[in-house]
Fold each of these.
Amino acid sequence: MDRTYNKHEKLKSKKLIDKLFTEGQSVSAYPLRMVYIETTPQNTDGPIKTGVSVSKKHFKKAVDRIRIKRLMREAYRLNKTTYFNNITTSYAFMILYIGNNKPTYNHVEQSMNKLFKKFTNAMHKETNNEKNT
RNA sequence: UAAGUAAAUCGCCUUAUCGCUCUGAAUUCAUUUCAGGGAGGAAAGUCCGAACACCGUAGUGCAAACAUAGUGGCUAACAGCCACCAGCCGUGAGGUUAGGAAAAGUGCAACAGAAAGUAUGUACAGGUCAUGCUGUAGUGAAACCAGGUAAACUCUAUGUGGUGCAAUGUCAUGUAUACCAACGUUUGAGCGCGGCACGUGCGAUUGUUGGAGGGUAGGCAGCUAGAAUGUAUUGGUAACAAUGCAUCCAGAUAAAUGAUAAGGGCUUUUUAAUUUUUAAUUGAAGGGUACAGAAUUCGGCUUAUAGAUUUACUUAUAUA
RNA sequence: GCCGGUGUAGCUCAGGGGUAGAGCGUUUCCUUGGUAAGGAAGAGGCCACGGGUUCAAUUCCCGUCAUUGGCU
């Protein structure tokens, strides 16, 4: 997997997003929160589809929202390889920014790493449980 | 030199690494490679005016609502812009004004005051034979003036059909002509986009309306070459117009135009040194570098904006 | 993106040019052995913000800000 984040890796289907928010599970590492769900894999796209979101309630100005989304996309792009390179199942992710202050890039990157660690731990637990039962 | 007025312009730059998106070319089952383009003066608010699209080409009468309001011009159009007149503000350069009608009618004016719009009381003075009359005083924003008030109703003149690219067209996917209630089938249920009437169109083999529900929520077109931008000349006081030449300048859709690192500008604070000492130069350290992100497209208006530059002018002081 | 509505006491709302009200809540007192209910008295407002019209604006007009609906 390369350090890319193009059209095919973006979460776009409205149907899938609705499903994600109603049925999905979540992990959080303040100020980030990730909602995820298993999906059926498709040939054309990669195994993971990711979206990024910032609430209009917390950031009124479009400039701030776009800035934070860009930082989050960048952090995802540069750090996803270390966690998801050998993944087998397909997932849909939606990463939300739930803080109230404008962050720096380093801050976002640290949080993103924490978030992914938490997520992988949760996955391991799940698989172990399945083996045990 | 200081303080100000008006108009106009700019609004960070460079390099490296890793990315995003569109277009073109080549190559592929996927894709990859190369070349080129990629935020603003306000992209913002959505306040006006248009283009464009659809809704019965929107016809007539009545009623209503809304907008505009000195004069002349500019413009595709406008509530915009320009010139001039008048009022008000400012020493001045200049700024500012919803600036039609009170002799068509209706209303309104708290408190104070004799009296607030059918006036005319008291005191004093003048005048007269006397009264009427004239002036002053006092209340108030306003006290008789064909008063004031029209961002009170109103009248006058002019204008306005409605809805907005989530318009609209098309392809794909997918189902339900299920169920309940009311009404009706040529003597017309109703419906058709904004008030009523007339007029007009559709209307029953599967009708119309309402209830309650099922399905799709994806692609393409619209979508960016235009009342375009730059420049020169000519006409006009100006807004602006005409002509020539050159240029092609974002098209995303959970929504691209970025991230990181280094260096440099600009500005400011502290501090040290030097000099020509109301200041300037150099070094060091720290801070700041605005407002803000296209979403159908143009013309305006309004609001936000660190800082920098230019031009013209005014006032004050000093010198010649 | 496009089109609307609303900002008045701690809360829910009236009022539409001339001193700003109601209900609930709140404070003090009365009543009771005590509490609730009841009675009496009081406090609490830049009428969202900035301009304009007017003698006078919460009210009329314009602009901001906040908040909240509808259209797919």
Amino acid sequence: MAHVKVADELCTVSLPAALLGERWTLLLLRQAFLGTRRFEDFQTSMDISRSVLTERLGTLVEEGILRREAYKDVRTRYEYRLTEKGLDLYPVLMALRKWGDRWMSPAEGPSFDLHHRTCGGDVGVHVACEGCGAELTARDVRVTPLRDSPA
Amino acid sequence: MAHVKVADELCTVSLPAALLGERWTLLLLRQAFLGTRRFEDFQTSMDISRSVLTERLGTLVEEGILRREAYKDVRTRYEYRLTEKGLDLYPVLMALRKWGDRWMSPAEGPSFDLHHRTCGGDVGVHVACEGCGAELTARDVRVTPLRDSPA
DNA sequence: CCCTTGGGTTCGGATTCCGAACCTTAGCTG
DNA sequence: CAGCTAAGGTTCGGAATCCGAACCCAAGGG
């Protein structure tokens, strides 16, 4: 497995990585998947500074991952909800959780459980071959650069 | 889906999120999975400053995700290799790539392809119920807090 | 014995982050 | 209707990070 050099701008890993690898963003998404929707709730649940929260929510809205929507409670409020694009990040968060469960779990175990709503089964994340169905690790996958690397 | 508040320190998503959601870390891991191993190669392929690279490699080694190893080329060199813990992050990176392919793909498409080494099939990432096998989205999953939230 | 290469460390300046205080709009209270 | 409060931000100044460039050092090679 030789060293493969790939232009950053063209890689479909590095683009999301640049976005999600920004401080707070992953935590913010975790909260969103847990059902947090309002500015104040994000702020208190994550203990993030208000100015940074404003900015992060803004970029996630710009990126189309969250949608800012006004609604009427007792008065007009705003909520940030996951768009389809945002909901589609679920496998990323689940993969992260699986890994965290295995490698960074505190002694008491995870702080919440996830189960299939209808049958109660555990949630699994699998990397598998679409052809033969085999479970895949990094070693089972061949990388083929599609464009010439710029060096 | 009510707002679920969970202590940050206890969550198996937020711990890895804090680590991977640090600038450069995800990109560094991407490079590692592509086969990059040496300090110089990381530096030039990601265009990261040397001081920050030193620090990031250091924390990943501390966390047991990379292992720093001396080896003899024409002289003694060092390489940073993924440990088992590191290799186990593969599903996270694959989930990220799948998402990037769908939502952030540049016009020319991804810059490299991945295929099952033995059968040539595409690589898939799936969140599925371990019980009934159904493919799951965020909406199909019930969240159950295991410890009392501190507020 | 000097040059190059890999793998860092050490600066100063530029960004980003943070906490605290402030602003604005609405409803609610007396 | 004057004043209070809550949500949802903005706007500071200081602290922590990041960056590029320069420097350091050990091991070969010529």
